[in-house]
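G., the chain you wanted modeled:
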Amino acid sequence: MYYVDMLYFVALFGGLVVGALVILAVVLLLVWVYRILATLKDIRRLLAASQTDQLAEHRQE
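Predicted structure as tokens:
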């Protein structure tokens, strides 16, 4: 009986640990995707700014 109870608690604790790790992995993945999208948005904004600068230089010429 004692062995079965111990096995049950180990399985329960292991399940909780695995669940916490899965939640942590999903949160880290979402943060990673958000940072990549933010970086792409910054790159796009820099490209747009450089293109408008080039247009302004062409207009001045």
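The mean pLDDT is 87.

Shout if anything looks off.
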